Structure formats: C-alpha cells, structure tokens
Amino acid sequence: MSQQQRRVSIIEVGPRDGLQSEPEILPTEAKVEFITRAIDAGVRRLEVTSFVHPKRVPQMADAEALISQLPRRDDVTYIGLVLNRKGFERAAATGIDEIGMAVVASDTYNQRNQGVPTAESIKAWLDIAREAKAAGIRANVMVSSAFGCPYEGEVPLARVLEIVDAVMEGEPVELGIADSIGVGVPSQVSELLAAVAERAPGVPIRCHFHNTRNTGLANAQAAVEAGVASLDASIGGIGGCPFAPAATGNIPTDDLLYMLQRSGVQTGVDLARIIETSEWLQAQLGRSVPAMLPRAGMFPQVAERYRAAAG
C-alpha cells in the first residue's frame, strides 16, 4: 500500500505523558477541557491519565476525578496507564475503556521507573491482561526504551524481541514500541519494526517517539513507511518522562499532523484546531510550547497572509 493511501491513527498522549513531567499542575477542569478540545479536533483515542502513586507523579493525582468528568462517547476511547495490579484495580473501578502498561527493555530503567526488574513487569502485565480481558477492558502493552536506555546504553534488538515474545502471550489489542528517551534514528526504526512484525504478525503496532535529539518526526515517518497502525503524539510537544534524565520532547501532534497531511497520510484530525489547542495550552502553562506549527503557521495559508500584508 502506498503512503498516499495510508491512514494512521493518532493517539493523543498530552494529557498523560505530556503533563506528567511538566512543572505546572493543571486543575482537573482544565484537563477536561484539554481532552475535549482534542476530541473536537477529531482525535478518537487518548491516553488521559495514569493510575500511579500521586507522590511519584503528582500531576496524575486526580485520575479518578478526571475520568468521572470526561464526556462519554461511543466513538472515543480513553486509555489509562497502569504499572501494577493496584493501578489496574483503580483504573477498572473508573470504567476506563482501555488500559495500557509499559514494560521497559532494560532492567535498570524498569527498576527506576516501576520499582521492579523487567521480568516482574512482564509477569504483572500477563496477570493484568488476563483480568482486563475478563472484565471486558481493552489492554495494550508498550515496550519502552526499545532503542536505548539512559543508564545501560544501547539495547540489543534481540533483547527487544525477547520481550515482545513474552508480552505477546497476554494477547494485547495493540503492541507498542517506544523510544522513551529519543535516541533512535530512522534506520533503527525500520529494522526493529520489520523484526517485530515477523514476531507478531497481524497485531496492530503503535509507536511512541520522543524528539529529544531532533529525530522524532523522522522516526515517525519511518514508522509510517513500515506500516504502523498508530502513532503517539502530544499537543504542543509537551512532556517527557520524569524518571529518565533529559527525556524531554514528545513529538508534537501539531508538527506530526503537518508532516503526515502534506505526505498524503490520512488521520481524521483537524490540524488548525490542534494548533488552537496548543495556543490555549500555552496560556494554561504560562509559557510557549515546543511545537513549531503554532509559531511557523500552516502552509500555504501563512503565505497568503504574508502576501496580503506585503500588498
């Protein structure tokens, strides 16, 4: 299938991965508006919160309150991140549509992020996946730091595939591959996704990239060419991971949409409304966001304004 015929789902992660490491803690009402704005722009899957201990991630302390205030729509899926059984139990009690779990490819980072070795997180995922299925809750899993670890360095492809084999026993509705610290490059993305597709044929693949070293959008393009089903992005490009050094820079939904739409890839999301939301978010945070489109403007529309001004 040519890229011009492709459709890729955008999973908006700004309300969770975006806000979790920002210094400002938005009130629940503002988070609801943030999510509602994304839905109004055409986003249909959103990672809205994480069910983690509030002392570790204070921005997510209102998880239950947030879920209770979100508009319920049959065409919108809300995803909550869980890291253990207690988190899953909290999520399930809210009636969340889908839960996601992360398994880090390196033991050191998994220990710092989740408090246990990778093998323990895999075991927890398999237990949670089974319980979610019994409860009628969709469950996805993400292999995090698949391209490199901030503490151990390079992560071998064989290690990632070993984890993929293990987590696939939980029959996730979607398998995620994440460059959690923004170290990957397109050639790595192509190689890894080809290998993953062989290990998990027919399973929808989701990718999560960070733009920490300015390769996030290039990696997203490589993922599209590899046939991924969905891409994570954060409106305005806010966020990162509070447990990894310098892991700033989720790829901006704004900039990603511009690249995809100009490339003929369909998303169903209105770029102009996403830019408006970035501008609204800047007002909420009291500072500018990393995304380029709110500053540079949409092309060719911006050229028309310059031409009018010059005339």
Task: Give a written overview of the molecule.
The protein is α/β, with parallel strands linked by helices. The protein has one domain (3-310): TIM Barrel. 43% of the residues lie in helices and 14% in strands. It has 13 helices and 8 strands. It has an 8-stranded parallel beta barrel, surrounded by 7 helices. Strand 7, helix 9 and strand 8 (230-233) form a beta-alpha-beta unit. The termini are far apart. The model has no long low-confidence stretch (mean pLDDT 93).
Element pattern in H and E: EHHEHEHEHHEHEHEHEHHHH
* Biggest pleated-sheet summary: 8 strands, parallel, barrel
Structural Rg: 19 Å
Assign the CATH superfamily: Aldolase class I
Percentage of residues assigned to helices = 40-55%
First-to-last CA distance: 44 Å
Strand order in the sheet with the most strands:
1-2-3-4-5-6-7-8
Q: Provide the structure class.
A: alpha/beta
Quote the beta fraction. 5-15%
The total domain count is: 1
Low-pLDDT windows of residues: none
Helix count, DSSP H or I runs of 4 or more residues: 13
Mean pLDDT: 93
Instruction: Assign the CATH architecture.
Output: Alpha-Beta Barrel
CATH class: Alpha Beta
What form results from the Cα inertia axes?
A: globular
Report the CATH topology name.
TIM Barrel
